[in-house]
Design a protein that fits this description.
Length: 312
């Protein structure tokens, strides 16, 4: 019998925020506010004239949102979004403009953005996973998409890190976990980086997408331990992961169709489903920890809704 689990409660903060619907946007908790960065919506040419935009939105409570700026970085989605060294970071981007966005941007106020690197050594790639850990920025996995931007087809199983976003070191390559990307959010738990699920996007030479539900962790980015070969939740990509309330979290994503299931684990081995998710199925939502709660914002449900999860 499973041990008793904590009780949680979802609250709809708003079902129609001030920003336009989008998926793949960054969501960061920074200086007492939520920040929403960029995003993708090809069905809305007014707000996304180039499929993606570079909007920066801010909210102190998740209900009222203010458009802070149209940032100088090229519009993008599913980039690396983190807080590191007292600043917000955008690491890389997508291939929707016909090229790879192998750049790094930082901001200490959300208004002024500085390009610290253009032409990173880990490019070209998209769909990579990014995390702040041990005073460094870590870039993990990803792939090229030749059908969107010219490049040799590559599926990465490598790890890079940087203290300043300018000088990058390739920590490891050919790692034991299969090449993957499409893992949103990030999780640092019990002093380790966690790589949970994910997969590969289809390409002209590999027409079938790969979906995974394995769980890996590392204390240094170079040596990885497979914690679990197959979790009880369905293999997926474009899902979000987080570390909150002393637990790992996996939520929503796609296994060919949008999902809205939510799972948590204290250790990465034993997983428990949080039943009766009230929000619509989606993938590529925006997730972060803020105000002692776990937040889920928008996504491929293409509704600008905002939800928070609190422990009862």
């Amino acid at each position: 019998m499973a041990p008793p689990q904590p009780r949680y409660r979802w609250t709809c903060v708003t079902d129609h925020a001030d920003f336009a619907a989008r998926d793949g946007a960054g969501l960061l908790a920074f200086r007492g506010s939520l920040w929403l960065l960029g995003g993708w919506n090809p069905r809305d040419p007014e707000h996304f004239p180039h499929i993606c935009n570079s909007e920066v939105w801010r909210s102190e409570d998740g209900r009222a949102w203010e458009l802070v700026t149209h940032a100088p970085w090229e519009g993008r989605h599913t980039a690396g979004y983190i807080v590191h060294d007292g600043r917000m970071w955008i690491v890389g981007g997508d291939a929707n403009q016909g090229h790879y966005q192998d750049d790094v941007w930082v901001s200490d106020d959300g208004v002024t953005w500085e390009l610290v690197l253009d032409g990173a050594p880990w490019g070209p790639r998209v769909l990579h996973h990014t995390v702040a850990f041990e005073d460094r920025v870590w870039l993990i996995g990803g792939q090229t998409l030749p059908q969107f931007a010219p490049a040799e087809e590559v599926f990465y199983a490598d790890v890079w890190c940087s203290k300043d976003g300018v000088a990058w070191e390739r920590v490891a390559d050919g790692l034991p976990w299969a090449p993957r990307g499409m893992i949103g959010g990030h999780a640092v738990h019990e002093g380790r980086i966690w790589l949970i699920g994910g997969g590969t996007y289809d390409t002209p030479a590999h027409a079938r997408r790969i979906y995974r539900n394995d769980v890996w962790s590392s204390a240094d980015g170079a040596r990885w331990e497979r914690v679990l070969e197959a979790a009880p939740w369905a293999p997926r990509q474009y899902h979000e992961i987080a570390a909150w309330d002393d637990r790992l979290w996996v939520m929503e994503g796609s296994d060919g169709s949008n999902r809205n299931d939510v799972w948590h684990s204290p250790c990465g081995i034993h997983w428990y489903e949080l039943a009766d998710t009230p929000w619509a199925p989606r993938h590529a939502a925006s997730v972060c920890v803020f105000d002692e709660a776990l937040w889920v914002v928008a996504g491929n449900n293409m509704t600008p809704d905002v939800w928070r999860l609190d422990r009862r």
